[in-house]
Amino acid sequence: MFVRSFLSWFTSVFLNAIALIAVSQLFDSFYIADFKTALIASVILSVLNLIVRPILIILTLPITVLTLGFFILIINAITLMLAQKIMGDSFVINGFGVAFIASIIISLISMFLHRLVGDVKEK
What we know:
Layout: H1 2-26, E1 30-32, H2 35-59, H3 61-66, H4 71-87, E2 91-93, H5 96-117
Antiparallel strand pairs: 1-2
């Protein structure tokens, strides 16, 4: 049970790191030093999504409801910017607009990769 959960989490982290690298290739204003940095950033994003994101969602619930869920995209960009601040110079995003667009593209690439690879729990 634990091994499957860990493999599922690690697969998710690995695929998100690939998505981060892909986005860094698309934008000049989105910089990741190397794949090791992308893996570390992906782990940090995983922790932030576990701890910080639910708090932000609860605090912004009224505006999220008013915007019919659109504000979740803003929360994703904020989470990405927080990870970037934690990482320092090895992970740089120049501006919130870039983080907003990048978070959408990262989500799409990650979703595609997860569907391509499948879920570890199913195997």
